[in-house]
Amino acid sequence: MKKESLHFSSRILLLTIVTSHSLASTQPRCHEDERSALLEFKTTFFTKKHPCCHVKYTRTPVEQSKVEFWNASEGKTQSDCCSWTGVECDKVSGHVIGLDLSCSCLSGKINSNTSIFRLLRLRSLNLALNDFNCPIPPTVGNLSSLRDLNFSMSNFTGHISHSLRNLTRLVHLDLSFNDLNGTIPTYFGSILNLENLDLVSNSLTGEIPSSLGNLIQLTTLSLGVNQLTGEIPSSIGDLIQLTDIDLQHNRLVGEIPLSFQNLLELRVLYLVSNRLSGEIPSFLGRLTQLVQISLSFNQFHGAIPSTIFQLQGLQALDLTSNKLSGTVKLDMFSEAKNLQELMLSSNKLSLIVETNITQQFRFLCLGSCNLNSFPEFLQDQNDLLVLDLSSNNISGQVPKWFLNVSTENLILLNLSGNFLTSFAQDPVIFKWKKLFEADLGFNELQGSVPIPPPLIEFYFISNNSSQRNIATLMQSKLYLYD
Ligand SMILES: *[C@@H]1O[C@H](CO)[C@@H](O)[C@H](O)[C@H]1NC(C)=O
Ligand SMILES: *[C@@H]1O[C@H](CO)[C@@H](O)[C@H](O)[C@H]1NC(C)=O
Ligand SMILES: *[C@@H]1O[C@H](CO)[C@@H](O)[C@H](O)[C@H]1NC(C)=O
Ligand SMILES: *[C@@H]1O[C@H](CO)[C@@H](O)[C@H](O)[C@H]1NC(C)=O
Ligand SMILES: *[C@@H]1O[C@H](CO)[C@@H](O)[C@H](O)[C@H]1NC(C)=O
Ligand SMILES: *[C@@H]1O[C@H](CO)[C@@H](O)[C@H](O)[C@H]1NC(C)=O
Ligand SMILES: *[C@@H]1O[C@H](CO)[C@@H](O)[C@H](O)[C@H]1NC(C)=O
Ligand SMILES: *[C@@H]1O[C@H](CO)[C@@H](O)[C@H](O)[C@H]1NC(C)=O
Ligand SMILES: *[C@@H]1O[C@H](CO)[C@@H](O)[C@H](O)[C@H]1NC(C)=O
Ligand SMILES: *[C@@H]1O[C@H](CO)[C@@H](O)[C@H](O)[C@H]1NC(C)=O
Ligand SMILES: *[C@@H]1O[C@H](CO)[C@@H](O)[C@H](O)[C@H]1NC(C)=O
Ligand SMILES: *[C@@H]1O[C@H](CO)[C@@H](O)[C@H](O)[C@H]1NC(C)=O
How many CB atoms lie within 10 A of CB 254? Predict the structure, then answer.
């Protein structure tokens, strides 16, 4: 027995030496069948004229397809496909296990015969940012070892292939920004290792399958910008690892499920632009990891629950354009020291603004919040990019100090729909260096028109009582209502 175990451990030792030796010097060359599958892919696939992959997705412009570096000739290293750009081999077996052809200028239809689907040991396949303009071929289901599948932004069309059912080991599935239609397959709910599911920006219809509630490893669920209908399934609340939910721009109805109170890891709740209703649930205030709550452009009613004001980590709260009512005191948010985006416009809220506001905001949208004057705390706001005080009850003169607010950063200013009569000085030259869009319309402004900075692109000022001097601005980029 003793001898046997000694023998055994020395075998392990030997094995360790052999493996570390092979790692250090002679990595196995790639396998011939896999090399020819890759070369076949290179020759049968045609690549677009350059530049092919939009610069906005890459740091540097992509001038050449990765496959152009794949070299058939019998050079010493060139013929080892494991050394080719975008190809990853298993260090021990030499089998191709990873293929990253993202942003590779590939253009043309792939189908079930396409040779890369013969690389049966692939664990990772990234074809993002190409242009295939065809359905996802069913043979992708043969790659049953896949952990990562990324087909984002590749112009795939049609239904989501039935054969993805076979990919039970998937951890990351990204089919975002394609033209996929049909419903989200119910069988996605049996890919139990999934951590990220990203179907954003397709044309998917039907309801969110409640089977997704089985995916207990899921951390991000991104189904935004589709045409999904029905209610948010209560089962989504079973996904207690979720950190990010993105269901924006769909046609979802009903309330935020009560089961969401279980989502204690949730950081981002993004439900913008649906037809959701009911009250904003007060349990959100107990999801202490929340950083962003975006519920704008829905039909939520009632008061903003006071629990939300206790979320210390909150950075963005966007409730624009709902049917919320009640009184909000801005200093209720004093616990949320990092709150940078507060958007409450277009509700039926009454805002009470104290002077002792400590946060530095970047987005502050307080349109139709029943304000009677310019909130004085704005004097200390230097980081503001967007300031919306439209449709309030602010009357009289625009104070001098207001023209000093965030002069380095402000991009958008909306003062429309108030009762402003004049500026404290005349003529007024706006000092906001980066101002891009200004709306002073629907006030009672008289006197000369404020002179916008050179960068301005949109400047609305019409429908005030007097519009003298407008003519002098006509050469610049002045836009009028009608
Ligand atoms: C292919 O390999 C040969 C021999 O090693 C080399 O001369 C040639 O430049 C390579 N071609 C490309 C496109 O890399
Ligand atoms: C795949 O290859 C087979 C045999 O060469 C051929 O009959 C079939 O039409 C091909 N399928 C597609 C989709 O190109
Ligand atoms: C997707 O395919 C269509 C049809 O060929 C084409 O007009 C369009 O430019 C493609 N889109 C992208 C992003 O490649
Ligand atoms: C690949 O998948 C097709 C069906 O999509 C199947 O007919 C074929 O047998 C599979 N090949 C391998 C090697 O698994
Ligand atoms: C599913 O994967 C197995 C290998 O695990 C393969 O034999 C079979 O053909 C695949 N089925 C489909 C529909 O791709
Ligand atoms: C898929 O690829 C795109 C483009 O490179 C990238 O932005 C995205 O993060 C990738 N998705 C995953 C899940 O890694
Ligand atoms: C789905 O997309 C395919 C391919 O673009 C198209 O032929 C089909 O009509 C679409 N189906 C629906 C219901 O829109
Ligand atoms: C701000 O002032 C109000 C009224 O003066 C006070 O009730 C509140 O506690 C103050 N908030 C902070 C954060 O100091
Ligand atoms: C300013 O706000 C009003 C109403 O609140 C809105 O109609 C208008 O489009 C806004 N202007 C800009 C430039 O966003
Ligand atoms: C609007 O302001 C005027 C004068 O400042 C005031 O008389 C009026 O009550 C205010 N209206 C509302 C709805 O607050
Ligand atoms: C506005 O800022 C300028 C400096 O840029 C300063 O001289 C002036 O006093 C400030 N005005 C007000 C009312 O704060
Ligand atoms: C400007 O205001 C008047 C009076 O309030 C209104 O009749 C007219 O429709 C407004 N013009 C535009 C372009 O909205």
Answer: 15
Mean pLDDT along residues 210-225:
97
User: Pick from 113, 97, 217: which is nearest to 145 by CA?
Assistant: 97
Q: Give the CATH architecture of domain 371-482.
A: Alpha-Beta Horseshoe (3.80)
User: Which of 102, 148, 152 has the most ligand 6 atoms within 8 A of CB, as the residue to mutate?
Assistant: 152
Is residue 283 within 8 Å of residue 307, measured between CB atoms? yes
Q: Which residue has the higher pLDDT, 112 or 180?
A: 180
Chain segment 49-63, per-residue pLDDT in tens: 555 666 555 566 566
Query: Is residue 332 in contact with ligand 8, taking CB distance under 6 Å?
Result: no
Q: What is the pLDDT of residues 435-463, one digit of tens each?
A: 999 999 889 888 777 888 888 888 888 77
75 alpha carbon, closest ligand: 1
Ligand number nearest CA of 321 is 9
Question: What are the residue ranges spanned by the domains of the chain?
Answer: 371-482
Section 202-221 average pLDDT:
98
Q: What is the DSSP string of 144-200?
A: TT-SEEE-TTS--EESPPGGGGG-TT-SEEE--SSEE-SBPPGGGGG-TT-SEEE--
